[in-house]
């Protein structure tokens, strides 16, 4: 029904308009009691799908990637479609509008999306108010810096977000890999990144001691455009800082092998969807093999089918996340993936 009725209607709208309209629809149906209907249609409850990763127990290995529910507005409602975890954000200390519109583009011939949103969000403290309600699903907090914050001061923004979210999320993701905030990817260099992660680790210990709770897992989200030498640096950084894992990968600035019209394909921003799948899988496999599986990896990038998901898991991912595949394929994709995982006994 989604691909033949709902998607064609939604795709008549501008991509960003359709995104927010979908939130209105989901919120409406959830409020009139359709949550149990969605769960019956899409959720598979099976102990064999459960995963314990970086100290957390996931009902299944499929998550919703950051960028979809930026402001933590529908994290519980999205769990009704079968997600085992929801990653909110990217959140910044201060609200920001993001880049000028139009900034979200569908590449229909490629089953892809280009976005240059620019960390548009209502600010971490606004999201915290919504995160105070009871969670029906594990929630990750993806954190970044404000556009106006200089890179030399970036760690202050990450610490503000970390401290604000500590009591309200289950794990953290440090986003230094979005291509849509000028200069942000420079923070992936070894020295500044090590500094940021070490200070977040100290903040983690401080918050845990103050609250008499366990420290929260800290993950790093990396770009697919890193070289092998840079990926080796990432492995070394994980070892040095003792963070808990990697999310591979963010969107790409590459435009290789696109079928879409040249004018559309050359829009600035990060590319996600099917064209990203091969490189994302390469990065997962490289990190897994070169580190000797030393840390967990969440695989994301171009998962549009059950076989795409299996490929990521077999390459070394412990968990996976959807974004563009969820837009193009709909919620039935989650059920297909979970069935395939059970069949493969992964």
From TrEMBL:
The keyword Flavoprotein belongs to this UniProt entry's keyword annotation: yes
Entry EC no(s): 1.3.5.2
Catalytic activity: (S)-dihydroorotate + a quinone = orotate + a quinol
UniProt keyword list: Cell membrane, Flavoprotein, FMN, Membrane, Oxidoreductase, Pyrimidine biosynthesis
Enzyme class: oxidoreductase
Active site (UniProt): 178
Cofactor note as given: Binds 1 FMN per subunit.
Pathway connected to this protein: Pyrimidine metabolism; UMP biosynthesis via de novo pathway; orotate from (S)-dihydroorotate (quinone route): step 1/1
Principal location: membrane
Subcellular location: Cell membrane; Membrane
Cofactor: FMN
Ranges where the Dihydroorotate dehydrogenase catalytic domain occurs: 49-342
SUPFAM superfamilies membership: FMN-linked oxidoreductases
GO MF annotation, one: dihydroorotate dehydrogenase (quinone) activity
Chain sites annotated for binding FMN: 66-70, 90, 142, 175, 221, 249, 273, 302, 323-324
Top-level taxon of the source organism: Bacteria
Positions that bind substrate: 70, 115-119, 175, 180, 250-251
Membrane topology: Peripheral membrane protein
UniProt similarity note: Belongs to the dihydroorotate dehydrogenase family. Type 2 subfamily.
General function of this protein: Catalyzes the conversion of dihydroorotate to orotate with quinone as electron acceptor.
Subunit description: Monomer.
PANTHER family linked to this entry: DIHYDROOROTATE DEHYDROGENASE (QUINONE), MITOCHONDRIAL, DIHYDROOROTATE DEHYDROGENASE (QUINONE), MITOCHONDRIAL-RELATED
Name assigned to this protein: Dihydroorotate dehydrogenase (quinone)
Species this chain originates from: Croceitalea rosinachiae
């Amino acid at each position: 029904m989604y691909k033949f009725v709902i998607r064609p209607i939604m795709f008549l709208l501008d991509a960003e308009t359709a995104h927010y309209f979908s939130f209105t629809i989901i919120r409406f149906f959830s409020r009139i009691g359709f949550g149990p209907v969605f769960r019956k249609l899409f959720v598979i409850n099976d102990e064999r799908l459960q995963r314990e990763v970086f100290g957390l127990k996931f009902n299944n290995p499929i998550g919703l990637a950051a960028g979809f529910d930026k402001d933590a507005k529908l994290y519980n409602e999205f769990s009704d479609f079968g997600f085992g975890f929801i990653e909110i954000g990217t959140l910044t200390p201060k609200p920001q509008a993001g880049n000028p519109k139009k900034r979200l583009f569908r590449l229909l011939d490629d089953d892809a999306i280009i976005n240059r949103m620019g960390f548009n969000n209502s600010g971490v403290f606004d999201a915290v108010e919504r995160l105070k309600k009871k969670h029906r699903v594990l929630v990750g907090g993806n954190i970044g810096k404000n556009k106006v914050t200089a890179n030399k001061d970036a760690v202050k923004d990450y610490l503000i977000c970390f401290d604000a979210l500590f009591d309200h999320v289950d794990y953290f993701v440090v986003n230094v890999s979005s291509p849509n905030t000028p200069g942000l990817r420079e923070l992936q260099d070894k020295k500044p990144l090590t500094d940021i992660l070490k200070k977040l680790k100290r903040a983690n210990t401080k918050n845990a001691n103050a609250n008499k709770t366990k420290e929260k897992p800290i993950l790093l989200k990396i770009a697919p455009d890193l070289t092998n030498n840079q990926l080796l640096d990432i492995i070394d950084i994980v070892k040095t800082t003792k963070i808990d894992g990697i999310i591979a990968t963010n969107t790409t600035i590459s435009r290789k092998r696109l079928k879409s019209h040249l004018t559309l394909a050359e829009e600035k921003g990060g590319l996600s969807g099917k064209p990203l799948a091969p490189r994302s899988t390469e990065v997962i496999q490289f990190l897994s093999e070169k580190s000797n599986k030393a840390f967990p990896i969440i695989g994301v990038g171009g998962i549009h089918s059950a076989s795409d998901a299996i490929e990521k898991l077999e390459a070394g991912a412990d968990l996976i996340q959807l974004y563009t595949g969820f837009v193009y394929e709909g919620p039935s994709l989650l059920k297909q993936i979970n069935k395939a995982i059970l069949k493969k006994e992964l």
